[in-house]
Amino acid sequence: MTDERKIREIYGYGLKSVLDEAAERIEATWREKLLRETVDLKTENALLMAQVDEFSRKLVEATDRNEKIEADCNERVAFIEEKFELDTASLELENNELHAASVRYLADARKLDRQVVQLHAEAEAMVDEIERLRGERDTALKAQAELSDALLAQHDLMSEVAALKDRLAVAEQRAAVAEAKVEVMTQMKGE
Fold it and tell me: What is this structure's pTM?
């Protein structure tokens, strides 16, 4: 009977030892898996942070460019509009003066032909000048349209940065959960 009892004790001790060893292996496997996941999440986190930094840098550059373009466009448009108004007023004044001169010179038949030719040439120059000013105004309007496109691109870039920040927050939360699991497993192992 004593032998049987010894065999049972040895068998029971061996089974317990095997179970303890299996439990330790399972725990070590889980801990290793959680540590790998934590490292992967931290790596992903770092990559996302790098992308956020890159997009932020690009956003700052785009904003600076847009502000410079906008300031330049506003300055050019204001200058062209002022020049257009002054030139138009000046041309209208000149036109009125030339018309008055032509009326005065109608009395003198010999001078009339020469004055008419001169007035036609000046009128054509005025029309050319007005067309040139309209071209400059159209160029300024085109620059304003380009500025609007740049502002839309900036808005799209800001949306991408916001989406990346959301992804970063989710990744940080997942990393925190994984670290908490590793800590719980470590505490359980210590107990």
Answer: 0.32
The DSSP output letter for 134 is H
Q: Which residues contact 150 (CB under 8 A, 6 or more apart)?
A: 62, 65, 66, 69
Based on C-alpha coordinates, what's the Rg of the chain? 42
The domains of the chain, with CATH numbers, are: 2-190 (1.10.287.2610)
Q: Tell me the DSSP string of 5-21.
A: HHHHHHHHHHHHHHHHH
- Per-residue three-class SS string for 55-119: HHHHHHHHHHHHHHHHHHHHHHHHHHHHHHHHHHHHHHHHHHHHHHHHHHHCCCHHHHHHHHHHH
User: What share of the chain in percent tops pLDDT 70?
Assistant: 85
The confidence score (pLDDT) of residue 112 equals 62
Question: Is the model's pLDDT at 12 over the cut of 60?
Answer: no
Lookup: tokens for 155: 């808005």
Q: For residue 173, give every residue at least 6 positions away whose Cβ sits within 8 Å of its Cβ, in sequence order, or none.
A: none
Q: Which position has the higher pLDDT, 37 or 6?
A: 37
Residue 4, token pair as written in the block:
């049987």
Count the Cβ atoms, other than its own, within 10 Å of residue 187.
9
